[in-house]
Amino acid sequence: xxxxxxxxxxxxxxxxxxxxxxxxxxxxxxxxxTMELIRRRSLGIYIYSxxxxxxxxxxxxxxxxxxxxxxxxIYSEIINEKYDFFSNKKTKESFLDYFEEVSKTKxxxxxxxxxxxxxxxxxxxxxxxxxxxxxxxxxxYLLKAKSLSTGKQLNRNSAADYWIIFRNILNLAYRxxxxxxxxVDYLDYIKWIPTVKESLTLEExxxxxxxxxxxxxxxxxxxxxxxxxxxxxxxxxxxxxxxxKYADGGRYLDFICQKTKVQTIVPISNEAxxxxxxxxxxxxxxxFTKEMSNNEMRKWLxxxxxxxxxxxxxxxxxxxxxxxxxxTDIYTVQHLLAHKNVTTTQIYVAxxxxxxxxxxxxxxxxVEDTNENE
Length: 374
Prior knowledge:
alpha+beta, DNA polymerase, domain 1, hpI Integrase, Chain A, 3-stranded antiparallel sheet, 15 helices, Tyr recombinase domain-containing protein, DNA recombination, DNA binding, SAM-like_dom, DNA-binding
């Protein structure tokens, strides 16, 4: 790629008796964000073509001095980009603002990680403050921090997730040449604590389905999640435009996943489709809210005789585990759950692996009788 060698201050005559000042780049400068090749840039500064009074001459001299200062600053930035130097202007920019802007384009855990970092640095942090020691102190903060919503000790696995996100933002800043050192190479991970992925058995799901619920839309949302594996955020945002029809009359969902922001296609059973009928102009689960997953849902679970600690996400686990238990292969389950890696699916369905169940029956103590004459 060609590199700019000179930045020259030039002027161009205008019809109203003034000259406009602009910069000329030779042979051109590639804007790092838009990748546009720039050869000229107007400064928006104008001087008198023929100054007549001392005041006009003084004005021209002042404007040319300002234009020259701009020329020097821009040329300095180009040289820094060319030779991988970092200007003071860049390093003094707010890393906290950068973290927030990136987090807004991601899922909720990114914003939670940002909020904890903002609390850690008391609302101020520039790129030049980022070094290994500073980042390690943030890791220590996460291990001792309290939840910003409940005030309770932050779950270690949540701390591990927020730390992974912070490492990702550091990597992104390094790739975009906002920080010079690849800090993450010197940072350890926070280890996750293995947790039990709770789910319902088929008998428990049937019991739940047959138990009356005071909030009908919540009941439909829960059962629908168990029959499709949809997350709560996707159920809340599901519209009838996303319910599509196969040529043979079957139905499937085609929607943008709220967590991953990618197009997701999920076939649904006839029972799942009948559950959400009749079709209306409103969202499929109009009136269903996140808050319903607290007291109302717990009471309904208790009424059905389920004593497990069940959250809404457990219904996604239920869908995955029941699919495996009923003979669906793990790669099909991976596709149904829209997991990028099959290892994620394995965590959900470890207890239901057909191969491990088959292996459990290989060692037998009872010797079967055989007819030697046959």
